[in-house]
């Protein structure tokens, strides 16, 4: 009766409901014993603890089922198969609920694991990106430092190269200036007639000699150049510095013969040659000339006392 009352009425607080109904049964039992002292048991029905309002709401079918299940006054006993079926139904319900709860838990755990995996991948990606960024920044600083070092080294090397180049240029310029001054002084002395034939070789340095003629003794060189005419001596003076010194030797210009080149040479050229070598000219030949001008006569007259005997026309 208590279970049926709980099943039908579904009170908010089952414990209070059971406590009240048990007290009600105890009071009914006392009243029953007072009226019938010889009876110790109270006749109970399955719906005696159901309130009237709930009893009116029950259908006849529900009442017959409950009466069949809980009315044991007829002496009938339920079959064990029914108990077994009820037990399996209840256990299957519990198993189904546990399985659904387990599936929900597994689904939730997997969802949480997937979310944690996504967070882990995102964290790894962020860490990798941050590490690469820091490494790239450090590499950029190192590259900039190396470029700056290379630039400074290149500037230093360029400065050293410029200094060495300036030093070499100054040394070469100094040597060239000394050689030029020495050459200029030599020709000035040569024009003044202060040098003899042997001193003419002082200008020629061993490093400047590059031909076979220059390697010969000075007397042999003068003998070879003595066979040259005026035209050949002028050309030889243009070959190199050594030949220029040899061609300007005073002994080669002591006897000048303009006859072979009388058709090629002009009056001004004769005057210039006589003006350059007039201190050394002893014999002058103008045989065959018909176009001698005033410049030539003026140059001859300046050294006429030396040409009085040897002037040939």
Automatic annotation (TrEMBL):
Stored SMART domains: FBOX
Record's protein name: F-box domain-containing protein
UniProt xrefs under Pfam families: F-box-like
GO biological process annotation, one example: positive regulation of protein ubiquitination
Top-level taxonomy: Eukaryota, Metazoa, Chordata, Craniata, Vertebrata
UniProt-listed InterPro entries: F-box-like_dom_sf, F-box_dom
F-box domain boundaries: 210-256
Superkingdom in the source lineage: Eukaryota
């Amino acid at each position: 009766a208590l279970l049926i009352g709980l099943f039908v009425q579904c009170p908010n607080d089952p414990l209070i409901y059971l406590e009240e109904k048990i007290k009600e049964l105890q009071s009914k039992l006392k009243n029953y014993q007072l009226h019938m002292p010889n009876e110790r048991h109270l006749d109970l029905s399955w719906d005696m603890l159901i309130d009237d309002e709930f009893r009116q709401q029950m259908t006849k079918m529900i009442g017959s089922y409950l009466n069949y299940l809980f009315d044991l006054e007829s002496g009938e006993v339920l079959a064990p198969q029914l108990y077994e079926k009820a037990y399996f139904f209840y256990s299957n319900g519990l198993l189904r609920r546990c399985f659904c709860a387990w599936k929900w838990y597994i689904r939730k755990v997997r969802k949480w694991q997937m979310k944690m995996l996504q967070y882990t991948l995102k964290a790894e990606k962020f860490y990798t990106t941050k590490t690469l960024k820091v490494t790239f920044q450090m590499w950029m600083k190192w590259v900039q430092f190396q470029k700056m070092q290379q630039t400074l080294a290149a500037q230093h090397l360029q400065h050293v190269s410029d200094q060495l180049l300036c030093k070499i240029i100054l040394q070469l310029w100094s040597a060239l200036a000394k050689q030029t001054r020495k050459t200029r002084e030599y020709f000035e002395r040569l024009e003044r007639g202060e040098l003899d034939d042997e001193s003419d070789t002082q200008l020629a340095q061993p490093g400047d000699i590059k031909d076979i003629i220059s390697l010969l003794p000075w007397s042999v060189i003068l003998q070879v150049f003595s066979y040259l005419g005026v035209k050949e001596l002028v050309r030889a003076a243009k070959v190199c510095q050594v030949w220029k010194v040899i061609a300007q030797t005073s002994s080669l210009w002591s006897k000048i013969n303009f006859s072979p080149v009388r058709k090629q040479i002009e009056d001004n050229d004769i005057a210039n040659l006589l003006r350059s070598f007039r201190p050394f000219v002893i014999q002058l030949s103008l045989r065959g000339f018909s176009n001698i001008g005033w410049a030539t006569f003026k140059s001859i007259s300046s050294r006429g006392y030396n040409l009085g005997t040897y002037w040939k026309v």
